[in-house]
Amino acid sequence: MNSADSSLANLLKRIGIASANLVEALSTGICSVAAFTSLFVLEGWGGKLTGFIGFFVLAYLIAWAVDKVKG
Fold first, then answer.
1. Is the alpha carbon torsion for 19, 20, 23, 26 positive or negative?
2. What does the pLDDT look like over 27-47, one tens digit per residue?
3. Which of 12, 30, 36, 63 is the most exposed place for a label (fewest CB within 10 A)?
């Protein structure tokens, strides 16, 4: 019965890591598209630059937080 418990724990750990990778990939992709879009949508160089850098910083922070949660 011990191997069944470790098998279930291993499966749940793999599902958790896969879910964290999915969240990280989606958030990075969405923030990258938003950063690129901000260069065209926002007016003025200050707004464009702020939006572009802001979304990349947001993507980095989300990826960092997910990596911290994964361990």
1. negative
2. 989 999 998 999 898 899 999
3. 12
